[in-house]
Amino acid sequence: MSPSTLFHPRDGFPEPHAETHDSAIYREISATSRPRAGSHLKLEGIAKRFGKLAVLDRLDLEIPGGQLVAIVGRSGCGKSTLLKLIAGLETLDSGQLSADDQPLSAHRDDTRLMFQEARLLPWKRVIDNVALGLAGDWRPRALEALREVGLGDKAAMWPAQLSGGQRQRVALARALIHQPRLLLLDEPLGALDALTRLEMHALIEKLWQRHAFTLLLVTHDVAEAVQLADRVIVLEDGRIGLDLTIPLPRPRQPASPGVSALETRILHRVLGRSEPDGDEASPHASRPPTP
Amino acid sequence: MSPARRRTLDRWLPWLVPLLIVLFWQWLVSDGWIASRLLPTPLSVLEAGWRLSASGELPHHLLISFQRAALGFLIGASIGLLLGTLSGLSWWGEKLLDSSVQMVRNVPHLALIPMVILWFGIDETAKIFLVALGTAFPIYLNTFHGIRGIDADLMEMARSYGLSGRALFTHVVLPGAMPSILVGVRYSLGLMWLTLIVAETISASSGIGYLAMNAREFLQTDVVVLTIVLYAILGKLADESARFLERRWLRWNPAYRGGQVQ
Ligand SMILES: Nc1ncnc2c1ncn2[C@@H]1O[C@H](COP(=O)(O)OP(=O)(O)O)[C@@H](O)[C@H]1O
Ligand SMILES: [Mg+2]
Question: Nearest ligand, CA of residue A55?
Fold first, then answer.
């Protein structure tokens, strides 16, 4: 289904026709409501530049369906650009993006991107935000999605009346209602306080386990990456600098020895290009060997 | 202060100063500090209002003025909204429209009165034309800026959810620009009465402005002041209706929710 068909003219149909048209939608919904496997994602030779700045430089990455991958890297290293490319919000300069051996552009409706800010439409009530872009009888589904993120009782509120964490959960519900097979999260917890983050970690992990989508999580918090991910990728110089499997069993305890060791290793890699102060000219800039 | 007491004060306190002024005015004139030939007392203004209402003259002129104002505003607002949307949404629209509109905007529209009389005579079209001209610009400008000011992040999000074309306009662009558009509406409603007063005063055979001019010729100061008071009331009503729209359409915005939650 192409993006333009998401908005069916059915919205405006007079009542007598509603039944026949809605039954088509119900078919659509039931066809998609059984759990679907996550997209198997393949990125080959991805390059993207803004003017003179090569943000991504022939990046290769393969992610099996259902994996939870965390992407970390210095600010400005191209993490958001990578997600936007996958989501189709930016155009590639060169390279191939595919999901399940088809061009990713054929999977637009299976791919959802969540941003650092919730980006709710302030003039729509919570439930109408969740249903953005849906046609037909979406109310029960939207309520269900809100219940999944623990906000079933906030359906009639305005976004301005919610806390930051609640807004992010609404954004999550808005993404989930489309039953994505690939979910892209761009530092979704960056602006939240520590306790809310822990809650969100649990929620994201639960939803990922239940819905089995492939999940790409960009984060600047290495502890968060190790806590949640099957695999952590460090982005540097427009390529993958480190690709590390996290073999720890779930549920994971924060700050256990295994977690700490991995965290330290990744942090070194991220910061390793210069002293932690960011002094590029330092002659002693340490650089750990590539694994 | 208890909430009930506060509500009462909230409602009535703003009327205190106008009331005192009216009382003071009555005293000034009736005690002879100002000649009643120059300024009628509030009571005689009320009396004039009563007299003209009873004879049916006042309702007649009021209705005519109201019709002119409403029709002119409707035309002007639609044009402003349409052009503002065109130049707000498209590069071509802006390049083709914006600088021309800005140029015309800087001409005081009332300067066109002699031309308008030449074109349309003193019939209805002239007045409606002037009102439409006066009200179109504030709405054009605020629509344009409202649309340009929409959060690009929200647009990006909406596109990533498959919205485009009409859906994007009705769900994101229009509501996003609405606070700004309503500022334009409020401003235009003020200009609407101003334009109509001037137009009716200069050339008309009916309407409140005509009533005022006619009364001046016969030195009926009470009627002249009555028309001024009427303009004040009409202006206030126009403003209230704009605020009503704000409270209704901008409910989502805490700044317009008027204190109550939801
Ligand atoms: N639309 C754009 N135009 C020009 N430069 C951009 C644009 N988007 C991102 N960049 C630049 O590309 C680099 C990577 O940006 P981004 O992907 O947002 O980094 P990250 O999310 O890792 O912090 C930055 O240097 C940024 O300034
Ligand atoms: Mg970013």
Answer: 1
Strand order in the sheet with A239-245: A111-114, A182-186, A214-218, A68-72, A231-236, A239-245
* Choice between A257 and B187, residue whose per-residue pLDDT is larger: B187
In a domain, B110, yes or no: yes
CATH number, domain of A151, equals 3.40.50.300
**Whose C-alpha lies nearest to ligand 1, atom 7?**
A50
pLDDT at B130 over 80: yes
What is the domain range of residue B92?
41-252
Report CB contact under 8 Å: B262, A160. Answer: no
B100 domain-assigned: yes
Range of the domain at A47: 38-280
In a domain, B24, yes or no: no
> Which of B150, B155, B160 best probes binding to A when mutated, by most A CB atoms within 10 angstroms?
B160
For residue B251, the SS3 value is coil
Instruction: State both tokens at B209.
Output: 């402005």
| CATH number of B154's domain | 1.10.3720.10
Question: Tell me: the pLDDT tens digits for A123-149?
Answer: 999 999 999 999 899 999 999 999 999
The number of domains in chain B is 1
Q: What is the ipTM of this complex?
A: 0.80
Q: Mark yes or no for CB contact B156/A109 under 8 Å.
A: no
Which positions ≥6 away from A42 have C-beta within 8 Å? A61, A62, A63, A96, A97, A98, A99, A101
Ligand 1, atom nearest to A73 Cα: 22
Helix (H) / strand (E) element for B9: namely helix B3-12
Q: Is the peptide bond before A251 cis (omega within 30 degrees of 0)?
A: yes
Q: How many domains does chain A have?
A: 1
Whether the per-residue pLDDT at B185 is higher than 80: the answer is yes
- The answer to whether residue A289 sits within a structural domain is no
Quote the pTM value: 0.80
pLDDT of residue A218 exceeding 90? yes
Q: Answer whether residue B14 is part of any domain.
A: no
Least CB-CB distance to A119: which of B153, B165, B254? B153
Distance A80 CA to ligand 2 centre (A): 4
